[in-house]
Specification:
The protein is built from five helices and nine strands. By secondary structure, the chain is α+β, with helices and mostly antiparallel strands. It has a domain of about 140 residues: Alpha-D-Glucose-1,6-Bisphosphate, Chain A, domain 4, CATH 3.30.530.50. The strands form two sheets. Strands 1, 2, 3, 4, 5, 6 and 9 form a seven-stranded antiparallel beta sheet that branches. It has a two-stranded antiparallel sheet with strand order 7-8. Strand 2 and strand 3 form a beta hairpin. Helix 2 crosses helix 5. The longest helix is centred in the last third of the chain and has 17 residues.
C-alpha cells in the first residue's frame, strides 16, 4: 500500500521526463520518396486514416481518431497511465500532421518548391493534436444515467455547435516522439539504395 502514492506520482508526472526531439526525423538527400511512404506506413500501423497526402508540399495529415483510453487496452496511442485515464474520462480524438521541410529551412517552415525535386536533405516533423468533444446542454439524471436528456440551445444550433462540437485541447508530444522514432527505424532498416530515385 505504501507504494501506491509513488506509482501514482510516476504515472501522473511521467510527461515531464519525456525525451524531446524524436518527433523531428532527418531525411538524407535522395531519400524523400522512401521517407514519405514510410511515414504513411507508420500512421497506418497506428490505425490512422489519411486525410491529406501531398508529396509536393510535403504534408501528410490524418482524420481525427477516437481515443477511448483504458476502455480499449489494445489502443497504443497513450504513452502514460495518466493519458489512459484522461482519454477514458473525456471524449478525445487524436489527429496527426507530418510536415517535410528542407533541412536548412527556418523554424516553422516556409512555402517552397516541389519537395520531390529538391536534391538536398530534409526533415520530417510529427505533430499530434488532441481534440476534445463537448456536448452542451446535457442534463444528468442522478437516479439513472439512462434518463439523462439534452437541452437545445438555439444559438449553438445556429453555429452548428449542437448537439456536439470539438475543440483543440492540447498536443501529445510523447506520441509524436514515438511516431518520429518509428519513422527513423523504418528508414534505418530499409534496403541500401531504397528510395534513392527521388
Amino acid at each position: 500500500m505504501k507504494w501506491i502514492p509513488v506509482i501514482l506520482a510516476l504515472a501522473l508526472g511521467g510527461c515531464a521526463s519525456a525525451r524531446r526531439g524524436d518527433a523531428i526525423t532527418p531525411i538524407a538527400a535522395g531519400q524523400y520518396e522512401a521517407a514519405f511512404q514510410a511515414a504513411k506506413d507508420v500512421l497506418a500501423g497506428y490505425h490512422y486514416d489519411l486525410q491529406r497526402v501531398d508529396a509536393r508540399a510535403g504534408i501528410i495529415s490524418t482524420a481525427p481518431r477516437p481515443s477511448p483510453g483504458l476502455a480499449a487496452p489494445w489502443d497504443n496511442d497513450q504513452s502514460t497511465i495518466a493519458g489512459e485515464w484522461e482519454d477514458l474520462l473525456n471524449q478525445q480524438m487524436r489527429r496527426v500532421r507530418v510536415t517535410f521541410e528542407p533541412a536548412d529551412a527556418p523554424e516553422g517552415g516556409v512555402p517552397g518548391p516541389d519537395l520531390r525535386l529538391l536534391p538536398g536533405p530534409l526533415t520530417a516533423r510529427f505533430e499530434v493534436f488532441i481534440d476534445r468533444r463537448h456536448r452542451p446542454g446535457w442534463r444528468v439524471e442522478t437516479s439513472s444515467i439512462r434518463l439523462s436528456s439534452f437541452t437545445r440551445d438555439p444559438d449553438l444550433s445556429d453555429r452548428q455547435m449542437w448537439p456536439r462540437y470539438d475543440t483543440p485541447f492540447t498536443q501529445d508530444r510523447r506520441l509524436a516522439d514515438r511516431l518520429g522514432r518509428a519513422l527513423k527505424e523504418r528508414l534505418a532498416s530499409a534496403p541500401a539504395g531504397d528510395g534513392s530515385g527521388g
